[in-house]
Design a protein that fits this description.
globular, alpha/beta, single chain, 10 strands
């Protein structure tokens, strides 16, 4: 009971934050290797508590006691994440989802690169969005050694919910990393990129302008200096370029901070136009606060249904009633009885009936708000030819 009560408190904070903020007033190609700086991979491994590679460029930080503490923290928690979360997710993916290439789209994601990469490791391009600020690229050269300990401790706190419960506590993450010298989503993206075996080549702030132009700002480790575009109407974000294990291609992970409610997108319609220009995505929805049950999110809901070639989601994504049987083939996994008490008003009788009729295969892992093993659900919607 204590665990359930604690979980309800967590999700209440998430939902209140998201709802308050939101309700206010082509084929893809691999990312170009425009710049590559060894420092980023060294920083990613440092933040992820991994042993430094030979010739590391940040040795003065790796010798600190806080670095050893970070390694000890991950040595304790990561084997459990692998065993209970990642291994069964990979097994399910290989058996049920298959290889999904091209453009991967993750609305309402926060900094959750871990789950999207586990389910969709073969994507050529990833685009996320959420409310969390992107923050600057976390260049350690701009950090004094005395601030390292506090920053690593804040990073551990911000990771705790995604590692334990599979979703981020939005409010907590914003406050934890804002208070530290390593702010925004970039430190978390770097941790997960390194922990999933990728090599990080660059991290840069980006701006999506109203004309669809994506502006890449300077890399802190670059000697080149460019003049930023003076226009003030843009969607801010951050881009991480990685190289996957055993691959020659480079892959971009773009995170944008944007209000995607109907009111918000009316102010920045070019954002969805940009997403549309990337091609037909595989879309993932998890722990989405049931936002697309609300009429204030009709636009993004319809956009996802129209654009996506497949949609993988839990019940917090798009209500079942919006999936036309003429357009989608649906497969159900896990268990659906009722949402957690906080979201009891979002119960779907038709989804419950579909689960009783389909007799879906069980899930061997927890995902979303109902993160207990044997309590979670996933639905795979494949668009018909």
């Amino acid at each position: 009971m204590l665990r359930l009560h604690f979980r309800s408190i967590i999700i209440a904070i998430v939902t209140a934050t998201v709802l308050f903020t939101y309700c206010k007033g082509a084929s893809t190609t691999a990312a170009p290797r425009d710049e590559s700086h060894r420092e980023w991979n060294d920083i990613a491994r440092f933040l992820a508590g991994m042993e430094p590679e030979a010739g590391s460029t940040i040795g003065e930080f790796e010798s600190l006691p806080e670095a050893r503490s970070q390694q000890q923290y991950f040595a304790k928690v990561w084997p459990e994440v692998e065993k209970n979360q990642l291994v069964p997710q990979r097994e399910w993916r290989d058996a049920e989802l298959g290889k999904q290439e091209g453009f991967i789209f993750y609305p309402f994601s926060g900094a959750d690169f871990l789950n999207i990469y586990t389910f969709f490791p073969d994507g050529a391009e990833y685009v996320f969005f959420g409310l969390e600020p992107p923050g600057p690229p976390p260049a350690l050269k701009q950090l004094e050694k005395k601030d390292v300990g506090n920053s690593l401790a804040a990073l551990q706190v911000s990771l705790r919910s995604i590692l334990n419960y599979s979703f981020f506590q939005t409010l907590h993450m914003i406050n934890d990393l804002k208070a530290a010298k390593l702010s925004g989503v970039a430190p978390v993206l770097l941790v997960f990129a390194a922990r999933t075996g990728n090599t990080v080549h660059s991290v840069r702030n980006i701006r999506l302008h109203a004309d669809g132009k994506l502006e890449l700002l300077d890399d802190p480790y670059s000697n080149s200096q460019t003049t930023p575009d003076p226009r003030t109407d843009f969607v801010p974000g951050i881009r991480m370029v990685i190289q996957k294990p055993g691959k020659k291609e480079f892959t971009s992970i773009d995170y944008f901070s944007v209000d995607i409610s109907d009111q918000g997108i009316a102010q920045k319609p070019y954002f969805l136009n940009y997403i549309k220009s990337r091609g037909t995505p595989a879309t993932y929805l998890k722990a989405a606060s049931y936002l697309m049950y609300n009429r204030e999110f009709n636009g993004v809901r319809d956009f996802i249904l129209n654009q996506s070639r497949i949609i993988l989601q839990d019940d917090s994504g798009i209500p079942l009633q919006y999936f036309s049987k003429d357009k989608f083939d649906l497969t159900f996994f896990g268990t659906y009885t009722t949402p957690i008490p906080l979201f009891k008003a979002r119960y779907q009788a038709d989804l419950r009936a579909a689960y009783l009729s389909a007799k879906p295969k069980p899930l061997s892992f927890g995902i979303g708000y109902q993160f207990g093993k044997g309590m979670s659900n996933l639905m795979l919607a494949k668009k018909k030819p």
